[in-house]
Amino acid sequence: MPKLIAGAFVTLDNVVQDPGGFGEIEHGGWALEYFDDLSRQRATDALLASDTFLLGRVTYEILEKAWSSNTGPYAEAMNNLPKAVVTSTLSGPLPWNATALTGEAAQTVAKLKQERGGNIVMYGSFTLMRTLLQHGLIDELNLGVHPVVVGAGRRLFDTVLPRSLRFVAATPSATGVVTLTYAP
């Protein structure tokens, strides 16, 4: 069964919204100055090591608009990767090499994990991420903790999760970001 590897950029005050500066919050783009060549290569490698990119609808719409016409190794890896969009409002084949997955999120993703052969990568989609964590469907959680406080925005853990996580590793970057890896 493939692993579902979820990742998020997070600030010291637990904000996960708009790290790329897509206009969601006033201080959006807070992660950009910390994204160096090594970070870009690691992100590209993670995409290339996966068979599916899992997203919720909102994150899909933001990333499709921002990345579908970009070029370069990271953009090409992202654009070529088949995407599965968990949604209750979209249907059928979608632009940007994507397919809508309808139904209850946890059941839909559990079924996806049984059908796919290779790993599934997931960025953002925090409502979906919380649901999948609560149902034990995420096999690895990578949190890129950025040394910045933005004060406002959606937070990753705004509710208490019923499951604990096991620490696996901490990987620091030259820019001050520490990626914390956890497993259920």
From TrEMBL:
Protein name from the UniProt record? Dihydrofolate reductase family protein
- The source's domain of life comes to Bacteria
* Domain called Bacterial bifunctional deaminase-reductase C-terminal: residue spans: 2-178
Q: In this record, what's one Pfam family?
A: RibD_C
Fetch the InterPro entries from UniProt.
Answer: DHFR-like_dom_sf (IPR024072), RibDG_C (IPR002734), Riboflavin_Biosynth_HTPR (IPR050765)
